[in-house]
Amino acid sequence: MAWITGTLSTAAAPFYHSELIFPLESWHNHGSCIVEAPNGDLIVCWFHGSGERTADDVRILGARRKAGASDWSPPFEMADTPAFPDTNCCMIIDPEECLWLFWPTILANRWESALMKYKVSEDYQAQDGPPVWKLEKVLHMKPGDAFPDIVRAKTDAYVAARGNDPAHADWARRAVDQAGDKLTRRLGWFTRAHPYITSQGRMIVGLYSDGFDFASSIYTDDHGANWIMSEPMVGHGGIQPSFARKQDGTLVAYLRDNGPPPQRVQVSESHDEGATWGPVSDHPLLPNPGAGLELMNLADGRFLVIYNDTEEGRHSLAVSLSEDEGRTFRWTRHLEQSEPGKASHHYPSIIQTRDGNLHCTYSHFVRDPVTGREGKAIKHAVFNLEWLQTP
User: Fold this and answer.
1) pLDDT at residue 8, rounded to an integer
2) Fold classified for 16-388
3) pLDDT tens across 266-296, in order?
4) Where exactly are the structural domains of the chain?
5) DSSP classification of residue 292
6) How far apart are alpha carbons 215 and 129 in whole angstroms?
7) How far is CA 90 from CA 185, 280, 363, in A?
8) Dihedral of CA 159/165/169/172: which sign?
9) Considering the chain, what percentage of its residues have pLDDT values greater than 70?
């Protein structure tokens, strides 16, 4: 893996372009994820319906932009559990060029009732519409018998490191109580950001629980034949993990902050390919208003994060580039900046395509100034590193 130092190349002209994948509409459209197929097609998924967990008509939709094309296809169905809401989808294409779609079905209109599922496709490039799925399974969660003791030890350490603040202590007590119940610890885990595939071929799927209000992951070393849950990443409100790798092999997870102030991206690290995770801490530089984000390695190894760079509100969406594995961020550009209350741009997903460009999708909600009604769509943006590195 090459790592960049010194002067950055500016060989290409900076460019940025964005468009809506489909027009603004009254339906709820949220939680997108983008991948690049081996043939160069871009595929995006998101959930669509009357609401989120409380509406039983929510399903997973997708769209495709064929390689070399400028327009997106009409939306098509990717997954639907009739009369149940399907939400928070994510995708990855593995080294064998199989497309994986992960999502939770919400059983009882509460996030704590989420049941994880996944589909796999080998036939998703020839046709214009949805993939042809060869497999669909429930992804069963089994944290293990040691989970209650691990949660107790990690919450005790977390609370002590923060001076036994009552807000953290109350959360810790609830988490420990819930960890003792077998059903509670096996249900309610679900996805948000891209899964991650290590250099050894391990697929790590980031998870979180609104019930526990912390994160975990599940991984497979054998293409899904067996799945193992990692030790949890226990931080108050640290959810929706997204991953990158340091040069020394350390895996880093950046987490959304749903906890009390200060509102910061939370961070945890793993030194064993995601099987266990260290203490959760606040990033000193990156704010987070309780909104999804994604972290990734560029092809040259540098860290890139796309996130709402505020402590309150989702009206500002930024992308930042680090040359020192997240200690500092030399470059930041804004994809969106709106007045609070008038628009929100959030839940981003980002990839670097084989041509070196960055493609992202995100939820784009705009409020009509006259009617007050909100229109919702998924937006796509593409830019190059030269644009990002333009002062």
Assistant:
1) 42
2) Neuraminidase (2.120.10)
3) 999 999 999 999 999 999 999 999 999 999 9
4) 16-388
5) -
6) 34
7) 22, 24, 14
8) negative
9) 97
